[in-house]
Every structure is written in C-alpha cells, then in structure tokens.
C-alpha cells in the first residue's frame, strides 16, 4: 500500500536550526504532486505565516495551522474549531498575572497581542505574519473566530507557563508546543485530528499516511499514521511512540527519508 498523504511539522522538522527550509524541498513537493501524493504542512504557526514560507509552491500544499485548529486546502478553510471563550477569559487573566509570559489570541483573520515587549514581539512575528496590536484582548473575542490562545514564555515554558496553565486541562487542551510556547485549544483539537479530517476527505487510510515531527504537539499526529517519523532531534517522549526515525532537522531529515521511501 503506497503513501498518499505526507504531513510535516515546521519548526525543528522542516526548518533547520537557522529557520531555513531545505533547498531540495520545493522540487520534492512538486515530484510528489505529480504522483498524486498530498503534502501537508502541520504547524503551530499561523496560516498566513506558512503562506509566506511557501510562496513559490503555496498552491501545491495543504495547510494544518495553529496546531490543528484550522485546515486549509485550495485556499479555503475546510475546518475551523472555535475555542471556548469563557475558559480563555480565565486563562488570559492568569497569564496577565504571570512573570515573563505573554498571550496571543489566534483567529482566522489575524493574531492579536496587547503587550509591546520587544523580545515577545520579535518571537511572535516569527510565527504570525498577521499580528494586530489591541488595547484589550478580551475585546477581540467577539471580533474574530478565535481558535487558540498561545502563550510565549521568555525563559522555559515547560517549567513555568505550562505549570501555571495546566489546571485548564479539564476544559481546554493545554499543549507544550515548544521550548518557549504553550498553546490552549478546545479538547480534541490537535494535528492528529486534523490529519483524520484530511484522511476522511480524501479517502486516505492510516496505512497510506506518513508524518514527521519533533515535539509534543506532534504526538497525536504520529498516532494517526503508520509511517510516523520522529526527527533525530525530537523530544524523547515523541521518539518513544514513533515507528521510524529520521535524520535531524539540520541534516535534511524529512527530505532524506521521503526520497529513501519513494526511491526518488
């Protein structure tokens, strides 16, 4: 049974440590498209940010953005999961009281911030191409379809912001998505569920799906496919559940593994 869908994370997976894509990736995507193989970018990043990164081949890709909250295909959002706003309000108030942590509300039209800390904004702009400064994030909840609350931690999200926010796991899903990032979404929203939506839409099975990732927000995505590849630089807990290992993001691991599998 041949692979018909490939999904890959961005940071720590497709992007090397200098935040550069492989020079061979675009040609590889085109070759896969000729074989009717869909290639999905599955990221915590904003859709508009992904478009900027893949400008030359943007029409050849499927996009799973905001950690599975929004799925785009052919320029249209085919799935949007709006977050529970009452729980977001509570979490926002906690974040505002925290030290060195900053909230971002992620919507379909834009992402929104209320703090102008330079370190925070510099990091936010790496992931959000559309970023709007507002006086009060609470006012945004009625303005846009909000799918995710992202929280930037200047030091160590796993031991600071995540511990502050994990109490919301009853009503929201609190996900450690990077060394400095925590994401809060509706329960059941993740990259794996987004993969299942694509599988159902295109009649593609678990056995016909391949995925690459490096961090814990890729966990469910790895469980949604037979050909699950943890990058050599991946979090130890992700490596435990994956069926295969790819070279590191700095060694062109995704491109190398795909070429090896398809003998390209």
UniProtKB/TrEMBL annotation:
One of its GO terms (molecular function) is magnesium ion binding. Keywords: Hydrolase. The gene is ybiV_3. InterPro entries: Cof (IPR000150), HAD-like_sf (IPR036412), HAD-SF_hydro_IIB (IPR006379), HAD_sf (IPR023214). Pfam families: Hydrolase_3. It is an enzyme of class 3 (hydrolase). Signal peptide: none annotated. PANTHER family: 5-AMINO-6-(5-PHOSPHO-D-RIBITYLAMINO)URACIL PHOSPHATASE YBJI-RELATED (PTHR10000:SF53), PHOSPHOSERINE PHOSPHATASE (PTHR10000). Its EC number is 3.1.3.23. This is Sugar phosphatase YbiV. GO terms for cellular component: cytosol.
